[in-house]
Design goal:
By secondary structure, this protein is mostly helical. It has helices at about 5-20, 25-40, 45-65, 80-90, 95-110, 115-125, 135-150, 155-170, 175-190, 195-210, 215-230, 235-250, 260-270, 275-290, 295-310, 315-325, 330-345, 350-370. The relative contact order is 0.06. It has a domain at about 5-90: Serine Threonine Protein Phosphatase 5, Tetratricopeptide repeat. Helix 12 (about 235-250) runs antiparallel to helix 13. It comes from Bacillus siamensis. Belongs to the Rap family. Pfam families: RapH_N, TPR_12. Keywords: Cytoplasm, Repeat, TPR repeat.
Length: about 375
Amino acid sequence: MSSVLPSSEVGVKINEWYKMIRQFSVPDAEILKAEVEQEINEMEEDEYLLIYYTLMKFRHQLMLDYLEPVTTRVRPTIDELLEKIEASNKGISGLLCYYSLFFRGMYEFDQKQYVKAIGFYREAEKQLVHVHDEIERAEFHFKLAEAYYGMKQSHVSMHHVKQALDIYDQYELYKVRKIQCLFVISGNYVDFKRFEKSLPHLEKALELSKQVNNNERLLSSAYYNIGKNYGDLEEYSKAEIYLKKAAEISEKYKLGNLPHSLFTYAKLLFKQGKTSEAIQISKKGLSSAIYHGDKLFESLQKYLDALYINAIDQMGIKKTIDYLEKNKNYSYVEDIALDTAAVYAESKQYDKSYFYHRKMIQTQKQIQRGECLYEF
């Protein structure tokens, strides 16, 4: 007769599994996941540990979707796991409730639903008293920093990312998170228009990325961010080199950030008047966005088409702005309103240029107001 495993023993192994997930150590995480799956079948009945196991499968999937192309392995979809979690969520409290809300926030962020993500993070924060692990608190602060950066709430983002980095700096094994913190810090400096302060953080991120195994996603992001930074500094030849390198890596390894890289690369080429090359990159970017199911960058590539190819298609531009505003992607509204105003000014259509300048200013005010996520 086979012995029944105590659930506490399996719980310890799930904790080790989560530790490997947070370190982005895919081989170790996969081994522990397989061991946990075997032991779950031999374990004594424990409803709460099964919920913890389902949550950790969800978190494992988020890690894989960040690092690896979707087509590399057969695995459950995020939606399938999400459905299981929501079905078992009723009545849970404490640490399980924290993980449920926190991981859901991560999912919404990956869907570029930044307001929803912050909403779940704020709910998770109410359960943070149950979190005693220092690294887990760093994870929480990092994810909030990332979400607030996406909303251009730069000062709030900086507050959280510093708290995260202060912890990660104490641990050698969390190099990936250190790199990601540097991306957020540099991005916030860009939003402050302090481009010269952004670049050193990105150069450090690139250096660290080269020291990480399975680093294609990090390398492509580092090259992308440096390229974008050089574009902001109006050093366009350097910007092209880095953006092209980012896109090549993403394309070679079928990474999910390819639509983003191709959009920024195409936009840079259009701005320099390299229209023929830009059209080819933009077409590739649209195909990539459709392939990856990335509605945001599908819409943004169509915007480039409307602005630069179709003799300023006003309805096409409006359609993109409507989509962005509906999804509260205000940072992109601000950027494309400015670009559209500049194109109209170049063609001496000053009334239309003025209209989009006003749209940009209105959007900046919207960003400054932020979303009211407080309950008092």
